[in-house]
Amino acid sequence: MPVISSEKNPEQLSLTLVAEFPVEVGRVWRLWSDPRQLERWWGPPTWPASFERHDFVVGGAASYRMTGPDGDTAPGWWRFTAIDEPSSLEFENGFADQSGEPDPTMPITRMVVTIEAVDGGTRMTTVSHFASLEQLDRLVAMGMEEGLRGAAGQIDALLAA
Amino acid sequence: MVVESALLSDKHIDRLFHALADATRRDIVARLLEREQSVSTLAAHYSMSFAAVQKHVAVLEKASLVGKVKRGREQIVHADPATLRRATRLLTAWEGVWAERVARMDEILAEPPTDH
């Protein structure tokens, strides 16, 4: 398993996850900087993401759309607040309405990613910061809904086979 | 988890949000998680007045993050683990989302490198 540790901080409403990969730093960096790589891991297999825009500069934005098994779409956005190639990036992640405009009523997560060389590969640390317990609650509820819909889609596929 | 979240009223969630939005209050909760202590012991850690610390404790109490009992002439404050457990549970769910993302990253990185 590439995840080597994770730390939950309920008072600060943050989650730190550390993973190590047996590849060089540049390849891990590209998972974030190249939208074609990014869209292969951002969404779950049942809700794949496609990035329509990926302005990988400080102040730049990314926009993506996740598509569920029944054709529903969940559009979202990133805003890059810091980029220091190839060792760190920070961005905000939120939801958008169907036209792609950021939805201010939806939760925003702040992400800090650090990438560094270690013995035998690369260590990546991601820290998710949540603004409030309510936001975290909504995010988890939505994630679960997507997961459940995904599971329902798989059952449909099995029955159709 | 969805059912449980319905049990927390909007008003309660607002209070939680407000209570945890302040760095001093988060620090107070962290100290109380280590051990319960009196308001005066707590106050000794901060440069602000006893009354100001007491105010912070009152906000945390309203949000059910801490509880207070009278012991002799002192008021002993303790962290309320139920609310914090709830935050921990939600973070655990989020951890699952990222663990899956990392697993997908690992699969991509296992592919032979491409030129671009």
Automatic annotation (TrEMBL), chain A:
- Mind telling me what this protein is named? SRPBCC domain-containing protein
The record's section on InterPro entries has: ASHA1/2-like_C, START-like_dom_sf
Pfam families reported in the protein's UniProt record: AHSA1
Entries under Gene3D superfamilies matching the protein: 3.30.530.20
Q: Which residues form the Activator of Hsp90 ATPase homologue 1/2-like C-terminal domain?
A: 25-159
Query: What family does this belong to?
Result: Belongs to the AHA1 family.
From TrEMBL, chain B:
Domain named HTH arsR-type: which ranges? 5-99
Q: Which domain of life is it from?
A: Bacteria
Name the Pfam families for this protein: HTH_5
Spans traversing the lipid bilayer? none
Provide the protein name: Winged helix-turn-helix transcriptional regulator
The record's annotation in InterPro entries points to: ArsR-like_HTH, HTH_ArsR_DNA-bd_dom, WH-like_DNA-bd_sf, WH_DNA-bd_sf
Provide any one GO MF term from the record. Answer: DNA-binding transcription factor activity
